[in-house]
Amino acid sequence: MTRSTSRDRAADLGFFLFAAVFSVLTADNALAGRELSPGALLADQLTGGLACAALFLRRRLPVQLAAALLVAGSFSHFVTGPALVAVFTVAAHRPPRVTRWIAVLAAAPGPLFLLRQSELSTTAVASGITYYALVTCAFGWGLYIRSRQRLVAELRERAERAGEEARRQAREDIAREMHDVLAHRLSLLSVHAGALEFRPDAPPEDVRRASAIIRAGAHQALEDLREIIGVLRLPAGEDAPERPQPTLADLPRLADESRAAGTEVDLSLRADRSAEPRAVTGRTVYRIVQEGLTNARKHAPGAPVSVTVSGAPGTGLTVEVRNPLVPHAPSSPVPGAGQGLTGLAERTHLAGGRLEHGRGEGRFVLRAWLPWEADGDAPAVAPAGGAAGRG
Fold this sequence. Notes:
It is an enzyme of class 2 (transferase). It catalyses: ATP + protein L-histidine = ADP + protein N-phospho-L-histidine. The chain crosses the membrane at residues 69-92, 98-115, 122-144. Residues 145-172 form a coiled coil. GO terms for molecular function: ATP binding; phosphorelay sensor kinase activity; protein dimerization activity. The chain has twelve helices and five strands. It is α+β, with helices and mostly antiparallel strands. It has a five-stranded mixed sheet with strand order 1-2-3-5-4. The chain has two domains: 6-161, no CATH class; 250-326 and 337-391, 2-Layer Sandwich (Heat Shock Protein 90), CATH 3.30.565.
């Protein structure tokens, strides 16, 4: 049994008043032509009063109450109003198979009514038609309410599933962003910390410079993490300004950070500088280069890295990160989840491009193509052939 609410209690009281008023207002027409003693009339009225009071049980015992009131309604007019409310409740809150049995029981008084009439009068026919019309309306209204409730419940369930999917997607986006940002920062810190560990006899000036870089990198990593966590703490629907996102113009700074960590980076920017690609395209290019440099530091420490970004509006942007394979490379001190390239491929696909990677001719190649629409053009489609994943 569910806990009753104020709305449920108000509805029960409303149905009680409806049944009582219906019985009183229709009593004169229903009792016309019937000769009842004062005692029989009082008993009929008391039965109707008890039937109206019994409606407060309709939520707990709807089927039993409807059956009892339909049977009692065959002998007492004052039970007709409560019976209509009871059959409505069954139709609105019980499965169709149960409703069908109650409908059969509601139709049963018809033959009994005909058998008790020696001859059919106009009044008797009108009374029977009115009764069945009222019962049909009660069933129809109940079935409509049931259908509407099921529709609302289905729409609510769909909305909840959509909300859960949106929350899941948001969690994946945040996790991808944290991986892209923090993996790069922490790999730089690991390189400098490893240099201090293996060169304890380094000149004090080099130690101070490496320590300063580690401190600045740790501070920047904390700032990045704080910004991402701040997004999670924003109230839903709050229109807060977004934090600055990286673009193609930030690639030289990214290369300088890797050079400061001891990685030889050859950055070649051949993209048309007379126009700017979409923000999502520039941000995706930055993340591709960032992931390529991070992986090179982890899996090919000390190896030179070649980064090439080329393209123009209408033809798209091509990004290529190459580094030679290092045989028997020491394991990276920075652990990874192994999901960087997978997440990068998903990010590239969402931006409308494609990403491939692989080993060949002693090199590891990470290559991507992203659309760059010319002014007035529709979004471009990733070429079917694409760039090969092997160099």
